[in-house]
Specification:
mainly alpha, 2 strands, 2% strand, Four Helix Bundle (Hemerythrin (Met), subunit A)
């Protein structure tokens, strides 16, 4: 098969995987997931080598899934401010700014030329608070996966999160997908 035939044969796979990650047809992320999946399909078709003994659908499945998961993480990142969140008023005093976890940051650091402005910090704090509240309402295991991977001191890979939680990488991926579907329903 040539590259164009491989892409045509894999198009349904992209729609299937995007539907798995994107929920209903009305989901605003569905089109972005399909676009990311199609780009991954095109790259997979260009790199596919039939001599290795793997079918194209098996080869493309992993690439499309990875691309959709990455795109979903990008789209649902806490840094993405949901519509309707308004910037907070500028602080009037030079007192330290305290975040939700009680960490103090001197106001001078916040006002540095290369630092984000108070509005951006306030928006981020609001979004983080909303996400943390939504995560807290998830089932216990889903919340544990999301907290371990994204809400700790550093981002962790699926392998690292699996080791911490005592489950496989694949199970982390499944639980994370379920958790993101739940978060999307709560936050949209």
């Amino acid at each position: 098969m040539d590259r164009d035939e491989l892409i045509d044969s894999g198009r349904g796979l992209v729609f299937h995987i995007a539907r798995h990650y994107g929920g209903s047809e009305a989901d605003p992320f569905r089109a972005d997931l399909r676009a990311a999946g199609m780009l991954a399909l095109i790259r997979a078709a260009a790199a596919f080598d039939a001599a290795r003994g793997t079918s194209f659908s098996t080869y493309a499945w992993a690439a499309i899934r990875r691309a959709c998961a990455h795109e979903l993480r990008r789209l649902t990142s806490p840094a993405t401010v949901p519509a309707g969140v308004r910037p907070a008023q500028r602080p009037r005093a030079a007192a330290p700014v305290v975040d939700d976890e009680g960490h103090e940051t001197p106001a001078v650091e916040l006002l540095a030329a290369d630092a984000p402005g108070p509005e951006a910090l306030a928006e981020t704090a609001v979004v983080v608070r909303l996400v943390r509240q939504a995560v807290a309402s998830l089932p216990r295991r889903d919340a544990a996966v999301v907290r371990t991977r994204y809400l700790g001191d550093e981002l962790r890979s699926m392998d690292e999160a699996g080791a911490v939680l005592g489950i496989s990488r694949q199970r982390v991926c499944q639980i994370e997908a379920r958790a993101f579907r739940g978060l999307r329903r709560m936050l949209t």
